[in-house]
Design a protein that fits this description.
The complex is a heterotrimer. Helix content of chain A is about 40%, strand content about 20%. By secondary structure, chain A is an alpha/beta fold. Chain A has 2 domains: about 140 residues, 3-Layer(aba) Sandwich (D-Maltodextrin-Binding Protein, domain 2); about 130 residues, Glycine betaine-binding periplasmic protein, domain 2 (D-Maltodextrin-Binding Protein, domain 2, 3-Layer(aba) Sandwich), CATH 3.40.190. In chain A, strands 1, 2, 3, 4, 5, 6, 7, 8 and 9 form a 9-stranded mixed β-sheet that branches. In chain A, helix 2 links the parallel strand 1 and strand 2. The mean pLDDT of chain A is about 85. Chain B is globular, with a radius of gyration of 26 Å. In chain B, helix 21 runs parallel beside helix 24. Chain B is mostly helical. By secondary structure, chain C is an alpha/beta fold. Chain C is built from 16 helices and 13 strands. In chain C, the strands form 3 sheets. A 6-stranded mixed β-sheet of chain C has the order 6-7-8-3-9-10, sandwiched between helices. Chain C has a 4-stranded antiparallel β-sheet with strand order 2-1-4-5. In chain C, helix 8 packs across helix 9 and helix 15 packs antiparallel against helix 16. The chains are: A alpha/beta, B mainly alpha, C alpha/beta. Chains in contact: A-B, B-C. At the A-B interface, helix 1, helix 3 and helix 7 of A face helix 5, helix 7, helix 12, helix 14 and helix 18 of B.
Amino acid sequence: MNTRRIRTTLVAGASALGMTVLSACGAAETNISASDGIVTIAIPSWVGAEANAAIAKHILEKELDIRTKIIQMDEPVAWDALSTGKVDAILEDWGGVPKKEKLYIEEKKTVVPGGDLGVVGHIGWFVPKYFADEHPDVTHWKNLNKYADELRTTESDGKGQILEGSPSYTTHDDAIIKNLGLNLKTVYAGSEAAQITQIRKYVKNKEPFLSYWWTPQWLNAEVEMVEVELPPYTEGCDADPEKVACAYPELPLQKFLNAGFAEKGGEAAEFIKNLHWSTEQQNEVAKWIASDGMSSERAAEKWVKENRDTWEKWLPKGD
Amino acid sequence: MTAVAPTPSAASKAQEPQRTQKTPKKQAGSVEADQRGKPPSSPGVLRRLTDRADGVSIGWRLLALVAVAAVAIPVAASLWGSGSWPSALTYDVRAPLERLDAWIVDNRESHWVFLYFLLHISNNTQYAVDGVFAFLDGLGWVGVTVAAVVVAWYAGGANLGRRALRTAATALGTFAVIGLLGMWEPAMDTLALMIVAVAASAALGAVLGLLSGVSDRCEKLLRPVFDTMQVMPAFAYLLPFVLLFGVGVPSALIATVIYAAPPMARLTALGLREADPAVLEASASLGSNPWQRLWTARLPLARKQMLLGLNQTIMMSLSMVVLASVIGAGGLGDAVFKALARVDVGQALAPGIAIVLIAVWLDRTTAAAGARLDDTSSSGPVSRARAWAGRAGALAAVAVAAAVGSVVGRDWPVNWTVSISAPINTAVTWVTERIDAGLPLVGGTLVWSENFARWVLNPLRDGLQGAPWWLLLLAVAALALLTGTWRTALTATAALAAIGVMGLWSGSLDTLSQVLAALVLTLALGFAVGVLAARVAWVERAIRPVLDVMQTMPQFIYLIPVVALFNASRTAAIIAAVVYALPAVIRITTQGVRQIDPGALESARSMGASPLQQLRQVQLPLARPALLLAVNQGVVLVLAIVVIGGMVGGGALGYDIVYGLQKSELDVGLTAGVAIVCLGVVLDRITQPAAARRPGGR
Amino acid sequence: MSAETVTDTTDTATDPDTAADQVFSVRNLWKVFGPKADRVPGDESLTGLSVAEVRERTGCTAAVRDVSFDVARGEVFVVMGLSGSGKSTLVRCLTRLIEPTSGALHVLGEDVLAMDRSRLRELRRRRAAMVFQHFGLLPHRTVLDNVAYGLEIQGVGRAERRARAAEMVEKVGLAGLGDRRPGQLSGGQQQRVGLARALAVDPEVLLFDEPFSALDPLIRRDMQEEVIRLHREEGRTMVFITHDLSEALRVGDRIALMRDGEIVQLGTPEQIVAEPADDYVRDFVRDVPREQVVSVRRAMRPALEGEADTGVAIAPGTVVADAIEAVARSGGHIRVVEDGRVLGIVDHARLLAVVAGLDPDAGGSHTGGREGVAA
């Protein structure tokens, strides 16, 4: 008989409290930056991106005395964060979220392009060199069906397997397979770590495999791979995701900045806009981090020490 | 991705089987309770809507089902054809979700819901976490360590007794090792997030628990919500929160609270409902009003359950805080992910160990506090003055340590760290290379993996996917009828049909085949090891720390070794699931077998039953409730880790959920999450007999 | 069995309308559990049926059926019956811990059923305190705080309530144990705490619900003595529920014997033993040592010539057992004397008749009672 009264009181109390708290403070800030004076760079989960961020952080902190924070997040998430200002910059964008790109840059104007990173990215289908050496014609898509049997695994339903990576990667492979009439099936490793582990495993046993892969990638220094030729990329051939039947484009990787940061970020923003290095340079640092077990800080320190000529040009001009 | 809190000391806790058996229906569905090795009497995480088994015999009911089927199937088959789920019967749930997604993105900086409500929440959580972090930072590493030790010591009884010293030593060891591993800073990040998350979850859980403890209607309302929250993979609802609150700490914190509050709420409600009626009546007879009764009797009587709830909440928060690194929460989880990006198991293990240790420390501390509540009955008189002196002394110790800390430096000294990465990697590589293919006679893991996929998984999946959709519905209905009632059969069938309607038929059946295989493996292994551990004391002692680690270690860490051993494949996903679900199954089995009525066993022995006969004829039948609970837990845990499976090649629903989160596509992730919940309902309904579901009725 | 036919064989029964000096005055009280319980008491067709029949007809369980009695100030009123007889339900109805279905209930002339929430709480806080079979102590509080609990609920200040609690702790013989917790005490000690808690609020009436059933026989006896002692010292009114006949006979001034929710007999212990109302009661009291309960008043015969002047004099309330001792000592008859007037004579023959159950009241005749017996 009494529980009802307790319940009513509780509910009333809770709602009263909630209303008070909320009405007390009016409209909330839509943009609380992590903290002022600290530059936040978002990196995706691959090492190349870590290399970019590591040297940026090193130079920002050591040369310009600006505290820098690196957070790891996936591309779509990073774009949202970039728009709200929780992240100030992303250094290596592969164009994986065109919708968000359009929304934030053109419509909301919360994100501005920061120029080329200098590194050129390329996605493609790759086979290991030992496999290509043995069967030179495997490097053309027209011959892939011949090797479907060799590429078959338990996961590929009797077809040849093409190993895919993390779900966050841009891929048209299912469409390409269908539209080119290939006897292949995409098998998702589900994460980059799983994909790399799997590739290493194949390489160790010298087994044939076909994989969705890309450059720059630090593993390329460890495992030699040869790209399979797909029908050449032409402007707009990937416009309709259902009808793609061509290779992936060469992609000059892009930097993007939060609009507010680009405007008021001062030296830090200018430095990030200037940052520009080559695929080889990035690969070098990435390999130090990934294969040689160096911490990203140590790798950045080493590279900065050895490549003053390159990065001096990035420093903000002026006095 | 844990559906259940990992609790290292689970098995070490005393059980209360009698109690749980007395009031089983109240605890139905408390998944969390088992983790302390505490079989909640009635297993049922997903079920609620069951009614009393009617008197009609199973045979008649099946006959009726056949009759219904005989009419319905030809009609359905002729209308929509046999084979996979007919597209005429699907409903596009993705389009509205996509629209919702777009609306949120468009409005989240302008709409009043955000400006006046959601953003306040998100900003305040950010401030709170920042504040706690600043506080920890201010204490310095010496201060934090001393504070942790003092808290643990205090929880252990604040004396020189064995328990107090042991918990204090656990705390000291935890923080020393975290520092040594070079994980101090991320650990503080995680700890700051944890503290706020636990405070918020405990508060929310206590309030909800209070509501459902005093009001039957609230309980009815909240229970299915709690059930869903626990089976729904966290990955699936991280995304909506990211959309609503943006990336980073606020989303992580809110997702954590949603995930970790249910056990607190459930156990609070349970504690309130279980309160000794004699005490409540005595209180009423003295003229107490309902509030007085609540404050002076019901709540204090529920203290122990609430503490258990707090323990569960802490453990679940920890696992979720780690997971939430995916959306930029930083901390130890971030360290794990970064190491994974370099495929560096050794590097990932350091934060992993830190997480396990934090879990152990918090578990032992709360468990010690719980044990202390227990023996207020045996300890001597309590002196208030002494208690206050103790508190003041503890505070002083922390203050001094903080002062010392600010002199010594805030961060753990850099040269006091060791790197375990290289040796671990060497060891892992050495082991995987030995057992992946090179084992004489038995082949090796790669061979097993391949054969398992070829001879078990593929036929199972193809069988499920190839079967006519109506046949599967019928089979589920029949199985559910065999163990339950018309109502359970209907729920199970409806859940399966919902999957088809959402258009996830084929992917869900793929996942189902993996889940079934993982479940069978888990249960076979779990029952075998569990029974063994129940009968041989040293086996139990030996596996306990292993189980602790298996339960608390973030699953991401064993992603790489699993792929190395079993290839990126469904087998790898299944192995990951087995590793994850096994500890709970083993613990529940062990406890169930051990806790059966000693009188029954004694009488069997007195009649000269052999050990095997004792097991078969007495122990296993009597442990049936526990075994059913183990099955239920197996279902929940295996489903919960489907997402991790998606990250090692399991594909299907798990992959969809990861895809949804990483690509920011609400429609894909959320529908796959709902499909997993539906699979959970189906499996639960066909594995749990109605009797276990609701002993005694209402 | 309706109210009119319930036997009240005691002299203390009074008109219910003048009940202000009665601590409790209960008339036609019903408690029915189940769906649409309130239609059962009024239904003539159901009142005559047994509990099982009523349950079959209506799905309701009648726990208390048409019960009427009064509890006078200062007496120990015992409600006795086997388990399931409705006695515990009845005592809870007295303070509406269980809401009665119908009937009238007055405490010191005030209508309990008409009380609102706060008035009812006042009743429970200050006028009627209860002692429970399973103690109902708060395990997380010390003995002292448990005893002070009732006062805390009343809103008494901390210092004052602890002082009064300490007094009560001493009174029930637990001095020095005030800082212990209930879990550290034996069952008997715990019930002493329960008793102290009830006494601490200084109630007009103490309600005991099978307070000693859970205790060992020896401790039970101790506690009974304790209650008798308290009653002697303070003269507090008590309503005492028990299923133990010897306990009822020992502590009770009057006993109401319940069966299936009805009172089958209400009377002094002696009346119950000496004049059982029906076979059920007779069966119940068969093993009672009659000489311990029956008084010489029932054994005496008119004085023959000369006898009124000789022999030892005893009071009419003396139990037969004591008279036997006196007769054995003196070797002759003894006189039953009240206010200097000789009421009658008992000798060994009369006393033996009582022990043997051959006295007129004990026989098979149902009509032996002075004021009529239930049909």
